């Protein structure tokens, strides 16, 4: 079951390194890695030359790192698509940390985007690990800096209404006037006019914009930084189109392997409304016009 590797929480990085690699191993040097908005990151080089990747933050951020680790483990358990190997999770009074396999990247394989689409579709088709969950997850996690509610539901549309759109609308209410609030209420009460129920829940990455995909150590596309839950594959696919997107060859391949419904394009912006509202709540009014535009289209 996902989360089993998290039974031991290390009290220090040195303890984790010694436990995993042997009592004689030590960290010889560190190199800071830039790019994260929430956590700090660095490459750790051990005295035998082994390189590891570490995310770290304040002790208060432990639950965020733990949720990421469990999401990565859930994805890895499908054996369909690459993720960095989880090594350890730790917390003390000074910091919390997540230790992972270092992704060096390298030359991409031939047919890189087609393979990535095929493996993502395979993950979406993989058996559900937690049948009791239905739509949702066995724990809440995080979408960026904000808590993501994953209360299990039997149906997808009520889940997306109650655990995705509604909490974000409520958090963003001060940005909107009465007219827009009425549109929000209309959309929430008429969501079944636009979304469809899938045949079964699928494991989703949950935050699959282009920056959460990386070339892995095998030259194929790997997933990083998940906000994992069980839902409709269209929600993942929509997110890939929100900030930059992937090449056409990826989408052409996903249509072959993922059985994409031709009406997906009509629903895409509703799925992305969740992500845009989350950005509005995290980063402010720069995302207001995009949210308002989607509300006007559907309500």
For the termini, the CA-CA separation is 42 Å
How many H/I helices? 9
How many β-strands, per DSSP?
11
Radius of gyration: 20 Å
Query: For the residues shown, what is the average pLDDT?
Result: 93
Secondary-structure-based class equals alpha+beta
Portion of residues within helices = 25-40%
Walk me through this protein's architecture.
This protein is an alpha+beta fold. It has nine helices and eleven strands. The protein has helices at residues 13-21, 62-76, 112-125, 156-171, 178-189, 233-240, 248-257, 264-283, 288-298; strands at residues 27-33, 40-46, 51-57, 86-91, 96-101, 141-143, 146-148, 202-204, 213-215, 221-223, 229-231. Helix 8 runs antiparallel to helix 9 (288-298). The longest helix is centred in the C-terminal third of the chain and has 20 residues, at 264-283. 36% of the residues are buried. The model has no long low-confidence stretch (mean pLDDT 93).
SSE blueprint and pairings:
Blueprint: H1 13-21, E1 27-33, E2 40-46, E3 51-57, H2 62-76, E4 86-91, E5 96-101, H3 112-125, E6 141-143, E7 146-148, H4 156-171, H5 178-189, E8 202-204, E9 213-215, E10 221-223, E11 229-231, H6 233-240, H7 248-257, H8 264-283, H9 288-298
Can I get a quick summary?
The chain has 299 residues and is α+β, with helices and mostly antiparallel strands.
Record keyword descriptors for this entry.
299 residues; alpha+beta; five-stranded antiparallel sheet; two-stranded antiparallel ribbon; 17% strand; globular
């Amino acid at each position: 079951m996902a989360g089993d590797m998290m039974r031991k929480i290390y009290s220090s990085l040195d303890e984790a390194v010694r436990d995993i690699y042997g009592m004689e191993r030590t960290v010889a040097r560190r190199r800071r890695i830039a790019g994260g908005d929430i956590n700090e990151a660095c490459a750790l080089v051990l005295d035998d030359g082994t390189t590891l990747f570490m995310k770290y933050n304040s002790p208060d951020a432990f639950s965020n790192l733990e949720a990421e680790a469990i999401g990565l483990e859930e994805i890895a358990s499908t054996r369909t698509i690459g993720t960095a190997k989880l090594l350890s999770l730790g917390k003390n009074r000074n910091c919390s940390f997540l230790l992972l396999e270092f992704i060096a990247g390298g030359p991409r394989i031939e047919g890189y985007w087609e393979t990535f689409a095929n493996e993502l579709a395979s993950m979406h088709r993989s058996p559900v690990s937690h049948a009791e969950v239905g739509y949702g997850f066995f724990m809440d996690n995080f979408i960026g800096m904000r808590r993501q509610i994953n209360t299990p539901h039997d149906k997808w549309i009520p889940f997306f209404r109650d655990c995705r759109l509604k909490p974000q609308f409520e958090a963003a209410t001060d940005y909107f006037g009465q007219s827009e609030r009425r549109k929000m209420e209309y959309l929430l009460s008429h969501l079944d006019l636009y979304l469809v129920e899938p045949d079964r829940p699928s494991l989703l990455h949950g935050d699959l914009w282009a920056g959460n995909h990386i070339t892995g150590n095998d030259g194929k596309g790997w997933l990083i930084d998940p906000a994992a839950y069980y839902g409709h594959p269209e929600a993942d696919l929509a997110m890939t189109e929100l900030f930059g997107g992937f090449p056409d060859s990826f989408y052409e391949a996903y249509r072959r392997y993922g059985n994409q419904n031709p009406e997906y394009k009509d629903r895409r912006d509703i799925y992305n409304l969740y992500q845009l509202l989350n950005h509005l709540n995290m980063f402010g009014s720069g995302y207001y016009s995009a949210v308002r535009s989607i509300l006007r289209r559907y309500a």
